[in-house]
Structure formats: structure tokens, C-alpha cells
Amino acid sequence: MHPSAAPNTREFPTAESLSFYCARPAAGALAQLCTALDAAFDACADAPDPSLHAAFARAVRAALAEAAADPALLTDEQREASTACYRRHLLAADPLGRYAIAALVWMPGQASPVHAHHTWCGYALIDGTLTETRYEWQADSDCAAPVREQSREPGAVSFTRAGRTCIHRLANGSDKAAVSLHIYGVAGEQIGTHVNDIVRIADTVRAVAA
């Protein structure tokens, strides 16, 4: 993060959060995901920040891919959408506060704000299609400018570290609902306040490469 850029911890108003979770699932795909994340942390137990290690990032991506491919991962309630905004279902929270797992449900036309992250995070697409627009931080003008767009299909997986080196926006530009699985490096109760770093967009928007 650029030293002159004050982080924005305000949650975007068009995100609706619902909590259907237990701190430690007893069985099933969600429990397996938690076990894989615990193992990733254990493998980097001596590191002050595990997210800086390539092995940790690989382990999180692999765990996301496996969980997202399991059709039994989510219940019908955890796939419920909102007509007003995209909806976030909190699925599980690590008792040690190291991570929180959520499912995000996107109706057509719904999108996230343009944001960086205060913490490491990763996501995988379960159903539908999302468009991810990437931005670069322009320190001289204290804003972000778009650089490229990418279509995200089921099975797509992403991992990023904290900071403004990875700024993006997710949007559902299709005519069908989309569902994505997200892991954030925060405690469950911080998921709405300590994840997204909302950034200002450049006034002059240049062409975005597909």
C-alpha cells in the first residue's frame, strides 16, 4: 500500500451479509476445506506472515479448487440471493481467528466495489460467470485505473496478498446467478470491516484490455 493512501475499512453498502456457520464444521466438504487450511498454516508455523510464502498460496488455491468442485459444499440456504445486492453467506470461521470462509451469491447486474484488500484472500467460482476487472494503483494521483478484464468460469481460482498491488472488481454481467467461494485472512466477525479496501477510480478511464 502506498504510504500516503489511507485505507478504507468501510464495507460497501451493496453487500448483504448473512451468517449460517459453525466455528468448526464436523464433516463434509466444508470440514475438509478447514482441515486443508489448518494444514497450510501448520506448514508455515514459523513464518510471521504465512501468506507471503508461495507454498501457502498454492495450498489455499488447491483447497479452494477442491471445495468449489464439490456439489455438496453449499446448502440451498447458502445459495440464496438478494435482489438488492450481492449476498455474502458466512460458512465457517477459524476458532483462532486466522480465516473466515464465505459464499457470495451474485444476481445478474450485481457487482463489488473496486477494491484492494487489507488481508490475504482467495476465491474460486462455483457456478455461473463473473467478470473480473483488474486495476493498477497510481500513487501520483492517489487512484486506481483499469488495465484488463477477464471472464471467470467455474473452476477458476485466485489468491492475493494484502495491499494495493492487486485491485479488482467482480461483476455478474450474465443473465444467470453466479456463486463464488471466498476465504479471507480475518476472524469471522471482521469479514464486513477488515477485508475490502475501497479505492478511488481514476476520473479518466482508459480502454480496458480483454
Descriptive account of the structure:
The chain has helices at residues 28-43, 54-68; strands at 15-22, 86-93, 100-106, 115-117, 121-127, 130-138, 143-152, 157-160, 163-171, 178-184, 196-198. It has one domain (15-198): Jelly Rolls, CATH 2.60.120. It has 210 residues and is α+β, with helices and mostly antiparallel strands. The two termini are 26 Å apart. It is globular, with a radius of gyration of 16 Å. Strands 1-2-3-10-5-8 form a six-stranded mixed β-sheet, with helices on one face. The chain is built from two helices and eleven strands, in the order βααββββββββββ. 35% of the residues are buried.
Count of extended strands: 11
Name of the CATH superfamily: Jelly Rolls
Q: Indicate the mean pLDDT.
A: 88
Q: Report the sheet with the most strands, covering strand number, pairing sense and barrel closure.
A: 6 strands, mixed
- Numbering strands along the chain, what is their spatial order in the largest sheet? 1-2-3-10-5-8
Keywords: Dioxygenase, Iron, Metal-binding, Oxidoreductase, Thioether bond
Organism: Paraburkholderia phymatum (strain DSM 17167 / CIP 108236 / LMG 21445 / STM815)
Cross-link (3'-(S-cysteinyl)-tyrosine (Cys-Tyr)): 121-184
GO molecular function: cysteine dioxygenase activity; ferrous iron binding
